[in-house]
Amino acid sequence: MATSTCDKLRKGVVTTSAARTRALAKTLAVELPPDCVLALHGDLGSGKTTFVSGLAEGWGIPGPVTSPTFNLLVIHRGARMLAHLDAYRLKSAEDMEALMLEEFLKSPWCLAVEWPENVGEWLPADALHLFLADLGGGRRSLRLATGGPNEA
Amino acid sequence: MILALESSCDESAAALFDPARGIVGEWVNSQIEKHRPYGGVVPELASREHLANFPPILSMVAEKLAGERPEKIVVTRGPGLAACLAMGVAAAKALALEYKCPVAGANHLLGHAWSAFLDFHAQDPASYSERLAAILPHLGLVVSGGNSILFEMGADLTPRILAQTVDDAAGEALDKGAKLLGMPYPGGPLVEKTAQGGNPKKYRFPRAFARTLEPRFSFSGLKTSLRYLIEKMDDATLAAELPDICAGYQAAVVEALSGKVRVFLKAGNYKSLGVTGGVSNNRLLRAQAAALAEKFKIPLLIPHPRHTGDNAAMIAFAAWAYPAGAPVVPAEALEIDPSLKMDGVAG
């Protein structure tokens, strides 16, 4: 296969605008395996929600992808069900279980988790981990890894 | 009498509404104290707490009803946290069986939209319909931790969304700003407090789409510009500048809201303005909304603070005032919809 977005992201990418971050996520969306957990690591303002809105575009999900910070979990429906979770206020795997996700996720789904370190023990071993950082001046770095921060 | 239940997030609530009198009873089990050590809503606790909270609330409801059978049970079916919504819906189905009355699924956001008219109705229930007709079309702003929606409502009472946030809600923008400034979560009210006495003009933050009819709010750029600003400051400077920074940041959030309200008031022919949801308690927003209402010579409707958070009174009232938004369905067909939109479109 020609260089996939997935491969590019594994090597690390720097985007120069929110629109480019979104476009990158949009091309990644079609490459993501069904029923996958995507852990999004990065500080406030590093582009996590922007990235998720690009994924949503890739799956033809209409409407804005708003921040799940207050609501904890926002579910979008399109070619794939996108569950967007902000784990900032979650403390443990039990908190994750209580969300009853298995009741609502319909295959093919993608669960995008912001602040995944808070529920690290819950994350499946095959979860994809995306590391985002704000480099200043609208530039953001993105890098993808499997198997969590240890491999990164 | 309409009996409403609400459990979309961390409050378990019930209310009784009599169209001839208004709200005749309301009960909210505020869980804020229980949650504080965990910093906000934790669903595991919240859904379990609903189970514990509803029985005592429902016995108080039964006492108030004193044998009277409600004409219908209304329950919030979305949007909200699935595990929490499910508790209220299950309770409502059980009550509908017990009271042998119909059950209806309500939209939490319509509840907020209609909360503007709760006190307006109670002023004189008999003349409500005529008085309502005189203040339509209505322009409403729903601003809370999780929502920022501007909508209009004409004589058919169907809400039409004019603008909504594409990223953070206004309340989230305040909470996230507070977090960047090292305040505990949720820090929105703390930003407001710290901003008192600060100079809102010293630090200028972006106000996205504020002066346009563009159908969106955006607050995510705000926190980035705050971060850039404070990165350059040492701790002592930051501490000294905190009131001015908070004042500037709060002004940006509030003016993004009020600026858009202003352009829509100018473009339309609205006869009333409503500001509802938790952020309607922000004093700067209230002051700017009041100034706009005065400028355009229309009444400003802001609910009582107890009806700005999650509450069942607004759910009961909205179900009565706009029954199309809370249709009666067979109990077995009543389902939660965690991503329900204000205009009823499934998420």
Please explain how this structure is put together.
The complex is a heterodimer of chains A (152) and B (347). By secondary structure, chain A is an alpha/beta fold. Helix content of chain A is 26%, strand content 28%. Chain A has one domain (17-140): P-loop containing nucleotide triphosphate hydrolases (Rossmann fold), CATH 3.40.50. Chain A contains five helices and seven strands; from the N terminus they run H-E-H-E-H-E-E-H-H-E-E-E. A seven-stranded mixed β-sheet of chain A has the order 1-7-6-2-5-4-3. In chain A, helix 2 (18-29) packs across helix 3. In chain B, helix 7 crosses helix 8 (188-195), helix 7 (170-180) packs antiparallel against helix 10 (235-267) and helix 8 (188-195) packs across helix 10 (235-267). By secondary structure, chain B is α/β, with parallel strands linked by helices. Chain B has two domains: 2-116 and 306-333, Nucleotidyltransferase, domain 5, CATH 3.30.420.40; 136-298, 2-Layer Sandwich (Nucleotidyltransferase, domain 5), CATH 3.30.420. The longest helix of chain B has 33 residues, at 235-267. Chain B contains twelve helices and twelve strands. Chain B has a six-stranded mixed β-sheet with strand order 3-2-1-4-5-12, with helices on both faces. A six-stranded mixed β-sheet of chain B has the order 9-8-7-6-10-11, with helices on both faces. Classes of the chains: A alpha/beta (152), B alpha/beta (347). At the A-B interface, helix 3, strand 3 and helix 4 of A face helix 2, helix 3, helix 7 and helix 9 of B.
CATH uppermost class of the largest domain in chain B: Alpha Beta
Instruction: Tell me the radius of gyration of chain B.
Output: 21 Å
User: What global shape of chain B is seen?
Assistant: globular
Distance between the termini of chain B: 31 Å
Oligomer: heterodimer
For the largest sheet of chain A, list the strands in their spatial order: 1-7-6-2-5-4-3
Which residues of chain A form runs of ≥5 with pLDDT under 50? Answer: 148-152
- The CATH topology of the largest domain in chain B: Nucleotidyltransferase, domain 5
